[in-house]
């Protein structure tokens, strides 16, 4: 599964300093009308920098994904242990998936959205 | 006789027990399904089950735990094989001239061939008080023969404290063992002088008795003939011929069995001790009627063990289907291998020398509960008994069955000196030697299964059912599978990961602890770096964090991301992302001041629900994550750890303070225990309780650890109880003297559990896995000298305690208590402003 198109109004949002997320954990942010969980990986196992962003609520029962435990590849929802890929949002334990958002660190800030062209 | 164009003959089988069903299986295996339309009657309302396993069902100590395994053929099997099964229906008469059977539900079935396999029933010796009327046993009296008997016993035993088993044979000891596992005080009464006198001589019987009494705590009374059952509507005791008596709330009668021959008698068949058959298992009166199993008498013998029954079923099927018209049964040699009350026993042939020149070689080691003897006649083995150590059973069985030449050094019959290794033993066994007596599996079938591609012991066991009965043959099955796989040039597949502590590290818990200590790995990330080449694994973090905290105590390097959310914010996450807050209220005792503060907090933070918990505490539910630090501060009470894989609570009753019946100060002990062990990490949650008397008001008998006062400051220590998704009565580890010793031993057990239990393995699985006897040896008798170390490490953990709710004043990580869900209207990130703020983190 590839990331769906970024809603226009949130692309390029700066969510705050990278330091606001402890290493190996996630925090939830509001970005426009969207709720986004941003994770800061301890190890960058798959490339693409230390940050990942996905929808904040688990598609299964609305669990807070930012409270989940993660490793370099996946995050586990704290309510019912559904496992989501940090690469493509796919779920290895259920028949659903989460929406992924492009996210990057820029000048120590979390920036949602694609890297500016050029 | 045919029906509707179906040219098949009618085969009716009366009796759906192990013999009847086995006979049908053998018939089907010989293509009998094409020749016969098969109808079976069984008076039990089930498919066919393994009666031998009733002992393990009883000992399993948990309602229906494992009864699935007992079924040999579930009811679907009958349909799949085109067999008409009348379950729960009893056949009352056979009209041999009209060739019909009549059942008690009015069913009439015609037959061309009839098999009678009605088995046997419990013999109830004539005793006053046994019966309420002709058909009804006095409440509390049980036979031990059927699944219903067993379930009724388990049910009845729940609220009972004592039982007498009449009859000290195999079945009696199994019943006693099972009931003792349910926590009852059990006495076995044997009118003769020797336990299991069918298999054991006096010396072996005495050794078994010693094991039963000392290791299992079961009372044994030999040479006592019970004459009456004392009742007051239900059982209250057993009275003996000399006027003495034993108080008991239940009685199990295992004083022998009687073949069910009533059907044979009313149908005009020759019946002596059982229905008389010829060498083809046909009744001597009617060539179309066969009898097989415990209801059949062949050459004067009636067999009560399962191995002869398999042989009879084979001959019957060969003859009936015409697969081998010359098949003949010549009787079985009396050889058996079993496990009685947890003790291995093998016996074959005669027990003692019978002729002047019989050689008799014996070894006896009462302290270890080991006895071995062999009887040799004219250089051939004619008898052997192995008790407690059956390492030589394969070799002896083969020598006995085949009359093989014996080693000149007769002692080699009892011990492997420089003799063949186990693998060679497996190699030397003939393919036809039966390995699993319970399920009738020969070595050849195991070898065939391996040749068919199954290379794991568990796989072969599942496919052949070998070792799935009493389990006594598991080591032999393992040897044979290993040998057979090696023969094929392969290696045995082992599902090792099942025993690993976490899926990402191929080590069992003790080895993992050793590695962690040896490599000085103090944080979860250090463990991943050192031991997991693939890097982190989310699912392994929490179990590793728990283990490291247990191993290192205050020296553990805590990385917050290794914690589950509950442990990051010290509350239990709820379905809506809010948390529950349960302050510690040691022993369930509180004060008016605490209650006022709780009420104030509930008002101030608009707590949606205040609930009294099963652990005698007060739960504030629906607390928002961001409110947690303020809630703790206002409560000014310590954490009750209702969220962690930790020691949770110690439930108490009012003990001696107010209760009229209290035998011990359970409240004080409970409070002391909770204060001492508060917040201890463990592989799974621990729920404790202390009861001031055996009325058990605080439910101590169904807790992970429970103490029950029995008077004079003595406490029974129960471990492995449960009353959640599993319900299990705890096992009595020991009885201790005094509060201090109760506190210490509780800690010893907890530390052993912390160091040895698998992740999330509750004590109700852990205790049976390790075995109560083993736990007693390690923790009470200190057999291995571990106790001092366990106690020392427990003390270090106790000393390292720190109340996590004090942390709220200074968050441990940025945004520790920041909301992660859109529960409330979130402050919006100003669009393209650059200075966004995380949700809900306002001061």
Short description:
Chain A is mainly beta and 118 residues long.
Explain what you see.
The complex is a heterodimer of chains A (118) and B (843). Chain A has 118 residues and is an all-beta fold. Chain A is built from no helices and 10 strands. The radius of gyration of chain A is 13 Å and the shape is globular. By secondary structure, chain B is α/β, with parallel strands linked by helices. In chain B, 31% of the residues lie in helices and 22% in strands. Chain B is built from 27 helices and 40 strands. In chain B, helix 1 (18-29) runs parallel beside helix 10 (306-321) and helix 12 crosses helix 15 (474-487). The longest helix of chain B has 19 residues, at 738-756.
**Total strands of chain B:** 40
Largest interface, with counts of residues having CB < 8 Å to the other chain, equals:
A-B, 46 and 41 residues
Spans where pLDDT lies below 50 across 5 or more residues of chain B: 418-424, 823-843
Beginning-to-end CA distance, first to last residue of chain B: 92 Å
Helix content of chain A: under 10%
Rg from Cα of chain A: 13 Å
Strand content of chain B: 15-25%
The general outline of chain B is globular
Strand content of chain A: 25-35%
How many H/I helical runs of chain A? 0
**Assembly status:** heterodimer
Strands of the widest sheet of chain B, in order across it, are 5-2-1-9-21
What is the residue-averaged pLDDT of chain A? 83
Give the C-alpha Rg of chain B. Answer: 32 Å
- Order of the strands making up the biggest sheet of chain A: 2-3-4-8
Low-confidence stretches of chain A: none
Number of helices of chain B: 27
Tell me, briefly, the overall form of chain A: globular
**How many β-strands of chain A, per DSSP?**
10
Which structural class fits the helix and strand makeup of chain B?
Answer: alpha/beta
Reconstruct the topology from this structure.
The complex is a heterodimer of chains A (118) and B (843).
Chain A: E1 14-17, E2 26-31, E3 34-40, E4 51-55, E5 69-70, E6 74-76, E7 83-85, E8 100-101, E9 103-106, E10 109-112
Antiparallel strand pairs in A: 1-10, 2-3, 3-4, 4-8, 5-6, 6-7, 9-10
Chain B: E1 9-14, H1 18-29, H2 32-35, E2 36-42, E3 48-49, H3 54-59, H4 67-70, E4 71-73, H5 75-80, E5 83-87, E6 91-95, E7 100-103, E8 108-110, E9 113-116, E10 120-122, E11 141-143, H6 147-157, E12 162-166, H7 170-181, E13 185-190, H8 202-215, E14 219-222, E15 226-231, E16 235-240, E17 245-247, E18 250-253, E19 257-259, H9 262-266, E20 275-277, E21 289-291, E22 296-298, H10 306-321, E23 335-340, E24 343-349, E25 359-365, E26 370-377, E27 380-387, H11 393-402, H12 422-428, E28 434-436, E29 441-442, H13 443-451, H14 457-464, H15 474-487, H16 509-518, H17 524-531, H18 538-552, H19 565-569, E30 572-573, E31 579-581, H20 592-604, E32 609-612, E33 618-623, H21 628-635, E34 647-652, H22 655-658, H23 666-677, E35 686-691, E36 705-711, E37 714-719, E38 722-723, E39 727-728, E40 731-737, H24 738-756, H25 763-770, H26 772-780, H27 787-799
Parallel strand pairs in B: 1-2, 1-9, 2-5, 9-21, 11-18, 12-13, 12-18, 13-14, 20-22, 34-35, 35-36
Antiparallel strand pairs in B: 3-4, 6-7, 7-8, 10-19, 15-16, 16-17, 23-24, 24-27, 25-26, 26-27, 28-29, 30-31, 31-33, 32-33, 36-37, 37-40, 38-39
């Amino acid at each position: 599964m590839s990331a769906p198109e970024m809603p226009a109004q949130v692309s390029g949002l700066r969510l705050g300093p990278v330091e606001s997320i402890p290493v190996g954990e996630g925090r939830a942010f509001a970005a426009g009308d969207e709720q986004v969980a941003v994770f800061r990986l301890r190890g960058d196992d798959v490339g693409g920098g230390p940050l990942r962003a996905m929808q904040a609520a688990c598609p299964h029962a609305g669990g807070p994904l930012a409270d989940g435990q993660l490793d370099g590849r996946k995050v586990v929802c704290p309510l019912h242990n559904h496992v989501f890929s940090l690469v493509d949002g796919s779920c290895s334990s259920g028949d659903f998936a989460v929406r992924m958002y492009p996210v990057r660190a820029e000048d120590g800030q979390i920036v949602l959205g694609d890297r500016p062209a050029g | 006789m045919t029906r509707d164009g179906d040219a098949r003959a009618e085969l009716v089988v009366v009796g759906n027990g192990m013999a009847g069903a086995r006979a049908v299986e053998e018939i089907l295996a010989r293509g009998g399904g094409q020749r016969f339309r098969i109808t079976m009657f069984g008076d039990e309302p089930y498919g066919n089950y393994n009666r031998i396993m009733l002992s393990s069902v009883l000992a399993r100590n948990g309602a229906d735990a494992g009864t699935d395994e007992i079924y040999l053929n579930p009811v679907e099997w009958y349909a799949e094989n085109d067999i008409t099964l009348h379950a729960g229906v009893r056949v009352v008469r056979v009209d041999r001239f009209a060739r019909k059977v009549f059942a008690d539900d009015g069913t009439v079935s015609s037959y061309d061939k009839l098999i009678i396999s009605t088995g046997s029933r419990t013999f109830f010796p004539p005793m006053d008080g046994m019966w309420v009327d002709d058909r009804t046993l006095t409440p509390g009296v049980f036979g031990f023969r059927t699944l219903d008997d067993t379930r009724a016993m388990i049910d009845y035993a729940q609220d009972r404290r004592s039982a007498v088993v009449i009859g000290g044979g195999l079945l009696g000891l199994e019943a006693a063992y099972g009931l003792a596992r349910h926590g009852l005080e059990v006495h076995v009464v044997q009118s003769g002088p020797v336990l299991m006198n069918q298999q054991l001589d006096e010396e072996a019987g005495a050794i078994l008795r010693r094991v039963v009494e000392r290791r299992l705590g079961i009372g044994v009374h030999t040479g006592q003939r019970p004459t009456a059952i004392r009742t007051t509507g239900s059982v209250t005791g057993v009275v003996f011929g000399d006027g003495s008596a034993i108080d008991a709330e239940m009685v199990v009668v295992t004083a022998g069995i009687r073949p069910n021959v009533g059907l044979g008698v009313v149908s005009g068949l020759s019946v002596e001790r059982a229905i008389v058959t010829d060498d083809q298992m046909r009744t001597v009166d009617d060539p179309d009627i066969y009898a097989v199993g415990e209801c059949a008498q062949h050459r004067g013998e009636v067999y009560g063990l399962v191995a002869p029954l398999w042989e009879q079923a084979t001959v019957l099927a060969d003859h009936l289907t015409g697969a081998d018209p010359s098949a003949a049964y010549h009787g079985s040699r009396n050889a058996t291998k079993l496990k009685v009350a947890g003790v291995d026993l093998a016996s074959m042939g005669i027990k003692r020398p019978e002729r002047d020149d019989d050689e008799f070689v014996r070894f006896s080691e009462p302290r270890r509960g080991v006895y071995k003897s062999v009887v040799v006649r004219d250089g051939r083995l004619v008898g052997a008994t192995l008790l407690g150590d059956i390492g030589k059973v394969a070799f002896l069985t083969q020598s006995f069955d085949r009359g093989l030449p014996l080693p000149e050094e007769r002692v080699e019959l009892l011990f492997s000196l420089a003799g063949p290794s186990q693998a060679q033993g497996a190699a030397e066994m003939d393919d036809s030697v039966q390995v699993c007596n319970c399920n009738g599996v020969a070595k050849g079938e195991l070898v065939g299964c391996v040749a068919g591609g199954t290379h794991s012991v568990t796989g072969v066991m599942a496919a052949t059912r070998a070792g799935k009965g009493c389990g006594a043959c598991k080591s032999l099955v393992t040897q044979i599978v290993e040998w057979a796989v090696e023969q094929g040039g392969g290696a045995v597949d082992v599902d090792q990961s099942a025993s690993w502590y976490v899926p990402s590290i191929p080590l069992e818990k003790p080895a993992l602890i050793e590695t962690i200590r040896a490599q000085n790995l103090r944080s979860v990330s250090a463990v991943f770096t050192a031991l997991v080449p693939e890097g982190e694994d989310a699912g392994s973090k929490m179990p590793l964090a728990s283990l490291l905290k247990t191993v290192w105590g205050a020296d553990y390097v805590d990385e917050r991301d290794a914690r589950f959310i509950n442990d990051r914010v010290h509350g239990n996450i709820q379905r809506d992302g809010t948390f529950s807050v349960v302050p510690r209220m040691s022993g369930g005792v509180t004060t008016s001041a605490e209650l006022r503060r709780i009420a104030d907090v509930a008002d101030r933070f608009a707590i949606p629900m205040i609930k009294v918990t099963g652990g005698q505490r007060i739960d504030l539910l629906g607390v928002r994550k961001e409110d947690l630090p303020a809630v703790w501060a206002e409560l000014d009470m310590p954490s009750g750890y209702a969220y962690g894989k930790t020691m949770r609570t110690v439930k108490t009753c009012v003990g001696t303070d107010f209760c009229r019946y209290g035998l011990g100060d359970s409240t004080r002990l409970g409070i002391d225990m909770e204060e001492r062990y508060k917040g201890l990490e463990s592989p799974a949650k621990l729920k404790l309780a202390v009861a001031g008397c055996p009325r058990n008001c605080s439910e101590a008998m169904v807790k992970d650890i429970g103490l029950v006062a029995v008077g004079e400051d003595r406490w029974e220590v129960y471990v492995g109880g449960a009353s959640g998704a599993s319900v299990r009565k705890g096992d009595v580890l020991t009885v201790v003297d005094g509060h201090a010793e109760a506190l210490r031993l509780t800690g010893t057990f907890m530390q052993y559990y912390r160091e040895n239990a698998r992740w999330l393995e509750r004590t109700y699985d852990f205790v049976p896995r390790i075995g109560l006897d083993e736990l007693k040896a390690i923790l009470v008798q200190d057999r291995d000298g571990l106790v001092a170390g366990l106690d020392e490490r427990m003390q270090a953990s106790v000393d390292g305690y720190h109340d996590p709710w004090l942390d709220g004043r200074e968050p441990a990580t940025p945004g520790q208590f920041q909301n992660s869900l859109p529960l409330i209207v979130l402050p919006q990130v100003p669009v393209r402003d650059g200075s966004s703020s995380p949700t809900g983190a306002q001061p």
